[in-house]
Here is the input.
Amino acid sequence: MGKRILLLGAPGAGKGTQSKQLAEKYDIDHVTTGDALRANKDMETEYGTPRSFMEKGELVPDAVVNEIVKAALEDADGYVLDGYPRNLSQAEYLTEITDLDAVLYLKVAEDELVERLTGRRVCSECGTNFHVKFNQPEEEGVCDECGGELVQRDDDTEETVRERLSVFEENTQPVIEHYRDEGVLVEIDGEQTPDDVFEDIVDVVGE
Ligand code: AP5
Ligand code: MG
Ligand code: ZN
Here is the structure.
């Protein structure tokens, strides 16, 4: 059975960046509600479209994301879970559907998060993350991996970033405290270089 890794962290903490590498190293699935929702932004649900929540930086209703995660975990032999659970009710649901081998929290200060998010650029073809200062592509606006066009995410404007960070404080910080209280949370210094963060994670998860 592949490793089952939960990666927690604020918007911009580096969950996506690290998950991509972890999925390769351990040959497991990268399960991310954010990417799944972005791929289905205009899907009609009884609550409205994902877009209507995401553009404001609000959480998409639990019923929608729980369904996505359940289906993805059923299909996976090992996974790194990124962007879920984001509130205590999602955390309870996750406990019902799976066990976890590692629970990691990427800790990054708020000022740094804002700078990372407003400067992030994402490949429109393969989803690889770049940053205008911290992680520049070889050629401006072009993906190193696949040559695709780099774009800014709709929710990476300063105003929406602030809202996402306040939604995180209110809803997701209690999830982190929940895993801390259970004694399973391992905190990782997310302000190091991406390679150093990755090394720290692998030290915890093991080979
Ligand atoms: P989601 O896509 O999950 O966004 P997020 O949690 O806000 O996190 P990000 O993807 O913005 O950041 P990240 O931690 O992946 O950082 P990254 O590696 O890109 O969710 C989006 C929306 O979907 C939500 O707002 C909500 O509406 C909805 N949603 C999703 N899941 C949901 C759920 N469970 N329930 C309800 N709604 C849900 O890095 C950021 C930048 O920093 C990049 O430019 C990167 O190059 C750079 N960087 C990374 N690491 C470093 C480093 N070590 N040093 C310097 N720069 C770095
Ligand atoms: Mg992400
Ligand atoms: Zn690409």
